[in-house]
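Quick note —
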Amino acid sequence: FKPDVIDGNFRSLYIKYPSAKVAKSAEASDLTKQERPLPESYQFRGETRKITDWIDRSQTTGLLVIKDGVIVHEQYLRGNTANTQAIARSLSKSIISFLVGNAVADGLIDLAAPVEKYAPVLAEGGYKGVSVKNVLQMSSGARWNEDYSDRTSDVARLGAAMAPGGSLDAFVATALPESAPGTVCQYNSTDTQALGTLLVRATGRSITDYMQEHLYEPLGMESDGYWLLDATGREM
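Predicted structure written out below.
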């Protein structure tokens, strides 16, 4: 996360760490491009500000503007290009939710069922008796502390599970209950990891493989994607 290395790290983690490839689609679904320059300024709280200043201040590495299905602006910064990878981070929450939805449609997952029905490793700790629906809605009641400066926080323990010999499944099994399921909506990355665990058990397939069929091919993705893996081969 240090300023001098964060950009390079965020486009190359799949090279530095074990990863699984989601192959680009056999037929890419190209978007029409009609490039035009960005406006020079925008209004914010009564002030006129430069868009270039916002891009620099926000440390943007890639900017894509789509209007009516047409790419009207595309640019890359800070060492990134159209051909480099960009870390998705919490975008994976939406991807996992989408894949669970496909498994529900395939009759492989019941939203009302407790998660341990599919993933026995979740039968203890904060996910015991919690329904799939509650976890999808981030109202599992499991504790989550995303303080990156606290080495004992939950997000720090999540990162430690990616170390050699670590296990993401073992990590989610140690989640602590904090509130009754279905009563509090709290942004919680462990919820997504728990969904990944049950998705693999319910489908009998890896997240990478299931995503290849249900998302990457239908979308016509033009580039390969990658999942970071723990020591057991589970996607993060």
